[in-house]
Write a structure and sequence with these properties.
The complex is a heterodimer of chains A (about 70) and B (about 150). Chain A has about 70 residues and is α+β, with helices and mostly antiparallel strands. In chain A, about 30% of the residues lie in helices and about 30% in strands. Chain B contains two helices and ten strands. Chain B starts with a strand and ends with a strand. The chains are: A alpha+beta (about 70), B alpha+beta (about 150).
Amino acid sequence: MERPEFDITISPGGKVTVHVKGAKGARCMELADLIAEIVGREDERHRTSEYYGQDGKVRIDTHVSERAG
Amino acid sequence: MSAVLVLTPLVVASWPAISAAVFGAAAAMGYAVGGTSCAPTRTTNTTSVETEIENSEVISEELVRGLHISLEKDGVHIEFGQDERGACTVCVTGEGRTKKQLKRIGEEVAGRMVQQFAYHKLVSELKRRNYAIVDEQVLRDQSVQVRVRL
């Protein structure tokens, strides 16, 4: 399995932007919390599509209903 | 990507840690360090602007109020110190410059100090947890980019 990575960018004004990569769900949030705790105040947090991924598997549920006509 | 965070650093540290960040910012921006002193050196007939660095606090076990670090470049004198509440302050003094210009210089230097502080805190904390720094670079806009692998 891919090892998680942080891509950290610190602007000349001191703002810190962190991309947490290679982690999903609770593990991803745990890593994000770690960085937030080290740096200070959290201004924004966005979850991307990978966050919701389930190891590459996608489950599609279909419901078919029949109309009486 | 799985999550993106935007954070504002809290500059809460001892004076030596804050001094290290000031020295780092001075080196990156080409300022000469005039040394540390207990008494601020103010000149007459010049314009001065003093601002507080947001989200900052100098932690000291001993009473060391009054410490300053002086920086110089192109006739501009910058003094990092702390106010009575312990917040970090930047005082910019220069001849022939408007308050607006001095304020902008002060904000720029203060921003770079916060950048240096955040960089050192992040890198030291992540190394302490045995995370590997796999890439590091300074971008054209002077942002610092670090890639860390767990």
